[in-house]
Amino acid sequence: MADLRILTVVGARPQFVKAAPISRAIAARNGIREILVHTGQHFDPSMSQIFFDELGLEPPRLDLGIHGGGHGEMTGKMLAALERVVIEERPDLVLVPGDTNSSLAGALAAAKLDIPIAHLEAGLRSFNRRMPEEINRVLTDRLSTLLLCPTETAVVNLRREGIIDGVHNIGDVMYDAACFARAASQRSQILDRLGLVERSYALATVHRAESTENKAALAEIVEFLRRQARDRIIVFPVHPRTRKRISEWRLDLGDIMACEPLGYLDMHRLLRSAVAVFTDSGGVQKEAYFHKVPCVTLRSETEWVETIKAGWNRLWKGPDYAPRREICAFGDGHAAERAVELISNFMKCQPRAGSAPSF
Ligand code: UD1
Question: In 59, 67, 265, 338, which residue has its Cα 20 to 30 A from 39's Cα atom?
Fold first, then answer.
């Protein structure tokens, strides 16, 4: 019998990480073959090729070279190109990891050609429809036949939306990837390269549209990180989108130690010896926990509520968040004078001690 064929669609950095353990598991089985397609969404070598090299991913069969433009334009171009690929390859199933524009385009292309879809990392919800990823997740889950959830929370989220069939809690493939890379990341030279010693620094990453597409929001994050940098070194591998905005808006990073985006192994080496993590990334929040490093998530909600409940993660702008402002409750620095004034006035109205009582 001919091998079953899975067509996996990847395009952005976190998808390479999620696809790698699956590709290895497929390679270890007989009777099943993978066709890996890269949409081209992430194209800088530091955002793409290095992950293939370090995670042992085979080069993609096809790279569609689609990136940039608005979300609709990018997703539309991917859909058109992926439709041609799916017609050509006629896979038995299309696998889409994560929640990027590439995930949604892959799911749509397959659904319209009546090919079953497996969504890897199904059921995640931030309940914030302003996030492009939330739209991608909700729609991809709707279209999928097999919903491969990383946690029980994700299963419950799907059940609340009436999605029950084909739902499986398989555990988190990002944890698989972290376990795979544990030994290899020991060989990373990143601490020496950046002149760092273990546990003397915190690690920050910022890339989400909600953090980077609004000057005030990005300025607030930079200011927060600059304040953190007064107490300890803040290592900040800068995503290309964030770098563009920082330079366009002339934001001053002050003492923050900015560097190029890091590969998977260097990132994990840095994570392992950090004292804290500040991030708006879903993946990095969890990876901080994998290395037992406390995290502040630079958002007002998270999909990974388990990390909050277990005390490893805290929302920068959670329900009890208030922007930093002066507290008037502690007076004006003249409390003592006021106290003495009151005491003195009080005493003036009292009979003097030692003076004879007047009858
Ligand atoms: C995408 C995903 C996000 C994921 C993130 C990881 C969507 C909606 N978002 O966001 O879920 O967490 O990837 O990084 O799919 N760019 C470069 N070089 C690159 C990659 C991007 O210059 O290698 C530029 C793009 O041209 C664009 C900007 O960075 O101007 C943003 O890239 P894009 O792929 O649109 O979104 P991400 O922010 O990376």
Answer: 265
The pLDDT tens digits for 303-341 are 999 999 999 999 998 877 776 677 677 778 888 888 888
φ, ψ of residue 336 in degrees (nearest 5): -65, -45
Pocket-forming residues, ligand 1, beta carbon under 6 Å: 12-14, 41-44, 47, 67-68, 99-101, 132-133, 207, 239-241
Q: How far apart are CA 42 and CA 10, in angstroms?
A: 10
pTM greater than 0.85 (yes/no): yes
Could you list the beta-strand ranges (E) of 162-256.
167-169, 201-205, 233-237
Quote the ligand 1 centre to 326 CA distance (angstroms): 37
Q: Kindly give the number of the ligand 1 atom that is closest to the alpha carbon of 207.
A: 38
Four-CA torsion 304, 307, 312, 316, nearest 10 degrees: 40
Atom of ligand 1 nearest to the CA of 99: 11
